[in-house]
Specification:
The chain is mainly α. The protein is 80% helix and 0% strand. The protein contains 4 helices and no strands. α2 packs antiparallel against α3.
């Protein structure tokens, strides 16, 4: 899997969704929903950037491609579930979507803990 390319696409998507929120949704969302949307964009961007960094580490000999694959899958799942549910919550107001957000948060935490474990094993 070309995680660097996927990360770059997700970074571009984060910028696009951030701009859409700032310019297209600001007048349509109340302040609470706008804050939720901004949180989705922030976590989306930061974790896509993390995915980009992790995708480069095997090329430096830090750890294997297989190790990076697992971490990147977890980051991707986190972006889709955490940020995705917050994007949908903000634009639809369907509060029930917030119930799945923590699953994405767990994927983020698992990715970072796995990265730390792999880095400490070096």
């Amino acid at each position: 899997m070309n995680w660097s390319a996927i990360a770059a696409l997700f970074l571009a998507l984060a910028v696009g969704l951030g701009a859409f929120g700032a310019h297209g949704l600001r007048s349509r969302l109340d302040p609470e929903m706008m804050d939720i949307y901004k949180t989705a964009v922030l976590y989306h961007f930061l974790h896509a950037l993390g995915m980009l960094i992790v995708s480069v580490l095997p090329k430096t000999g830090t750890f294997s491609e297989a190790g990076a694959d697992i971490i990147c899958w977890l980051l991707l799942a986190g972006i889709l579930i955490f940020s995705g549910s917050l994007y949908l919550l903000a634009v639809t107001g369907t509060r029930m979507l917030g119930a799945i957000t923590p699953i994405g948060g767990v994927a983020f935490i698992a990715a970072w803990v796995l990265l730390a474990w792999k880095l400490m094993r070096r």
